[in-house]
């Protein structure tokens, strides 16, 4: 066999050429002369196979990705390495050189390819939704039988700002398009329902509360014919606060903490701690507030009872002893609360 290109005889042929002529003619990669990509001028996301992805990448990285995606590599190539160099930029046209190196039949080859990359600018659907004030859900912050306090609103605003900052790194729909101050609370208009749920859970983790969702039809998607829903999520904070006194299932207690799942309280006439799930919130009765606690003095003590002075009438009152208060000594000043005519010595002191 002989090579028709260089004339060498008695050689093995690859696609009708000897090995060195074959390698000389070989192209590591193939790519079009011109490539286009579409970018959102607002967030920098690029459109790839119908999806908007990767907001905020540096331009060199975008060009590199676009060029890499357009390249086809010959099956014979091993250890391919690609570098993209932007030579000149004219408006939205990037003239680039692709530096390719790879191993073919044991030989390392380096090649250069010229390519023109064109940038098409537009606004992605998420950004145009944001611009038009689009929202999928409204968080209605309320409180039961009262309005949310200034402190609660301030803390909740802070939670929302921090969560949005974190979530918006990955989710373009993580934004608040409107915050409405109403007589009964605050309404937050949220880009996506998923984000709204995430925000509600973060608030609930700190304040607890009862969550209710009500979807309302907000229109119809013209292309699919399906109804579009907007979801109102109401988060109702409890009527009570930490330190207040409640009755639940015949137990009296002082609230020690609220979280996303339950309300914890210390029982008033035993050393025990109990809790109630939020779904049973309606069965909780508030019997006194933290502001109703008073201080008084222990006047005597027996193995069965502790005697204190009623803070207003100064009458001596005997309180049955239990483990939670058994360590109290005569002469000590103790916090107490009066509920339905009975006095209870408190084991925990909260700031009023
Ligand atoms: Zn040859
Ligand atoms: Zn965008």
From TrEMBL:
Xref: Pfam families: NMD3 (PF04981)
Entry GO terms, CC: cytoplasm
InterPro entries: NA-bd_OB-fold, Nmd3, Nmd3_N
An MF annotation (GO) of this entry: ribosomal large subunit binding
Domain Nmd3 N-terminal residue range list: 3-237
Superkingdom of source: Archaea
Protein name in the entry: NMD3 family protein
